[in-house]
Amino acid sequence: MGESESAWVESDFSHLAGPVEAQVGAGRFPRLSTLVELAHAPHPVFARALPWREDSHPARRTVGLALHTLRLYSPLAVTRLDWLLSPDGWLDCYDLEDGRLVLAASARLEEAESRGLELARASARIQQSQGRWPDAVELLVVGGHAAPGRRLASLPARSLTGDGPARFTLSLVGAGRADRHLVARQPSAAVEDTALHPETAARLELPPASGLELESQDPDEGVYCFCPRAPKAGRVVVADARGRAPREDGSHGIHPDALRRSGDRALAMLELANERGDAHRIRIVLDVAIRADLHDLVDPLESLVPAARQRGVERIDIVTQPGRPSGRTLVGSLRDHGESQYVHWRWVEHQGPQSHGTRVRRS
Asked: pTM of the entire structure?
């Protein structure tokens, strides 16, 4: 990370984490609004808070779990967050804007099975008190690099016997390694072992039938490289770009440094794949709250175009308001003109394609 990049990361983290730290230090659970702002921070800023998930202080671990879950379920807004005290510690209960109820907890590897069973009991208590089961249960297992034993690997399926939550996900996360998710769904309760959480796949709009297989990932940077099953087809690198900048009117605009970094990391991932063919695509998915015009999106990526063309990238997609019918995708087709390159940009509506014929030349 360069000196200028370190400066904005440090500044943003201090600004966003300060209110959270102050409320935890005062012995209070942070307000939902302050957690949401930090959960939607650019990846290098949010990464500064990741160690909280395995902190020795219980309150900080609870906050780390909340930040992880809020970020995981974006772009859905959380309308209510309750902390429930259980015999083994705090549980998080989230009401989402789509009507789903999510129950979450974290544990170290050696505590994971007992914590998972406590989640199952808490789910039953919620059903008794509210007349509904949680729609999803999340168990975040942090620290350590050991693979789950057979009994722990079967925990998601055992937690969905009979009536119960629609989905149970056990996520193994930790610094220096890719995330791993064991997912069981009703009614079969068969366990799927995947590197991509179902909510992340939904946010990136990559359904199982997309014909893409996850080849490599950097979850701390939110960059994923997919290899198509079709022969000779180019790779697709998806950057989950969360960075947003507050405006004076209370809305959120683009964070140019974060957008530039996402594009740069996407190119680096493609280079690690050692692919120098053609027809590669970069797909950048923005935070749902960002409102930006064409030049807000294009200008930060200007310096990346020559390197992208050299790597065989033929298209850059910038997805705005993911998961919303009102969203649009800015599609950039990279082309050569002599020894220079330029990009033809056009907007495509999520409800149907619509080209505005906007052409932006980049040398």
From this structure: 0.85
